Amino acid sequence: MPISPPFDARPEPGLPVPAYWHAQLSVATTGTEAVGGGPELLEAACGYFTRRGMCCGPGQLLVAPGAESLLLALLSASGGDPVLARPAPAWQAPVAALLGRPVHTVPSAPEGGGVPDPVALLETARRARAAGADPRLLVLSAADDPTGTVTAPELLHETCEAAAEAGLQIVSDETYSDTLHHRHTVLLSPAEMLPDHTVVISDLGATLVPAAVPVAIARFPATAHGAAWRQRTAAALAALRAALPAPVAAATAYVLGEPAEVTDRAAAANRLHARTAAAAYRAITATGAVCRPPQAGFQLYPTLRAPDLDAAALEERLSAALGRRLPGGHRFGDDPAEPRVRVGTGALHGRTEGERRTTLAAADPLAVPHVAAALDALTAAFAALTGPDVVSGSADLGSRGGAG
Predict the structure, then answer these.
(1) What are phi and psi of 102, to 5 degrees?
(2) CA distance 66 to 57
(3) What percent helix, strand, coil does the chain show, rounded to 5?
(4) Strand ranges in 309-397 using DSSP code E only, listed in sequence order
(5) Where is 138: in which H helix or E strand?
(6) Phi, psi (5° rounding) for residue 38?
(7) How far apart are CA 77 and CA 59, in angstroms?
(8) Do the Cβ atoms of 378 and 348 come closer than 8 Å?
(9) Half-sphere exposure for 92 (CA within 13 Å, toward CB)
(10) From first to last of its 404 residues, what are the pLDDT tens digits of the chain?
(11) Which residues neighbour 277 within 8 Å (Cβ) at sequence distance 6 or greater?
C-alpha cells in the first residue's frame, strides 16, 4: 500500500467541546497518568466495554494517547505482518510502515464496511506466505472509515472464519461503532465471534472526547495469549512514553462512565451526523457521483463520473473549491486512478465553536444558514466537476463492485 502523508487522516466530527469536559479538566490534578492507564481509568473502560456486551476486567485493558500509538504498540508486540482492508483508514498504513514490515491489503466487499472479502483474504494470506512473508494480524473495521458504511453480520462472520483458517489474529477497530445513524442497522464485533483471538480498539475522539484530544482504549482476550499480548503491548507503550496527561485521564474516566449528560450529548451528536450525512449524500449523488449511503460516522466516500480526473487531481480540485482538505482515495490505499474522495460531513456543522453549538442545538440543523450554505457549496463543487452532461440518479453502488 502506498504511504501518504498523514494529514487529515481522520474525519472531523464538527462538534463543540462540551462543558462537562472543561469542567472535568479544571478539577483534575496535574501530572501524568500511568502508562496504559491507572486504576480509575481502567475501571471506567471496563464498564464501557461491559455495557457493550464485552465483559472484561481491568487487567484486559490498556489506554493510550491515540489509536496510532496503540496500534504501533500492538503491531510491535504481535510480530509478523499486518493485513489491512482496502480501503483502510489513512493512518493505519503509515503506522505499520514505522516497523518496516510489509503491509498486505485485501479489497473490502462491495456491500461496504472496512472488512476484507473472505475469499480474497484467504488467497492473499496464501500468496504472501508462499512468497516468504509472515502475515499474522488482520486489522478491520465493521463500521468503516473512509466509507461510512457497516459490514453485514453474515459477511463479518465469514471473514472471521477466514481469518481463523488463515491463522490471523484480529484487531477490530470499533471507533465508529457507537455512531450508527439508524437503530435498525445491525453491527456485530469480531470479539463476539472469535473472542479468544480478537483485540478491540476504539479511538474515543469520534464519540466521547474532543476530536483534538488523542485517547484510545484496547480490550484484550481473557486468555493466556491475550494477557501476554497485553503485557508486551504495555511494554511498547512504556518505551514510547505513551501516557495521558492526568487531567485528560480523569476527564476520560468521567465520560467512559457515561453519565446522563454524556449519553444525551452522544445521542444528539448521532442524530446530527445522520441528518447532515444524509443531506450531503443527497447533494453529492444529485450531481451524478456514485456513493454508498452512509450508515455510521460522519464521512462519505463518493466516486465521480469524471474520467479525466484521478484521485490526487480530484483531491486538489475539491479541496481548492471548498477551502478544506478532502483526501483522495489514494490516501486510503485505493486505486490512484479512480476519482474517489472522502467527504467529512462534520465540516458542514460550522467553522467556529459558536456555529457548531448552534448546529448541534438546532431542531432542524439543515435549516441553519451556515449549514445550508455549506451544503450548497458542496453541491456546487461536485457539480462543477461532473459537468452538465452527467445524468443524475441513484448512487447506490449495488453491482458496481469495488468502488469503495
Answers:
(1) -65, 145
(2) 21
(3) 45, 15, 40
(4) 343-344
(5) strand 135-140
(6) -85, 175
(7) 17
(8) yes
(9) 32
(10) 444 444 568 899 999 999 999 999 988 778 899 999 999 999 999 999 999 999 999 999 999 999 999 999 999 999 899 999 999 999 999 999 899 989 999 999 887 789 999 999 999 999 999 999 999 999 999 999 999 999 999 999 999 999 999 999 999 999 999 999 998 999 999 999 999 999 999 999 999 999 999 999 999 999 999 999 999 999 999 999 999 999 999 999 999 999 999 999 999 999 999 999 999 999 999 999 999 999 999 999 999 988 899 999 999 999 999 999 999 999 999 999 999 999 999 999 999 999 999 999 999 999 999 999 999 999 999 999 986 544 333 333 333 333 33
(11) 148, 181, 294, 297, 298, 299, 300, 345
Cα four-point dihedral sign 193, 195, 198, 200: positive
pTM above 0.70, yes or no: yes
**What backbone torsions phi and psi does residue 200 show, to the nearest 5 degrees?**
-100, 130
CA angle, 42 as apex, 57 and 140 as ends, to 5°?
80
Instruction: Give the β-pairing of 343-344 and 299-300.
Output: antiparallel
Find the length of the chain: 404
Neighbours of 119 (CB within 10 A): 13
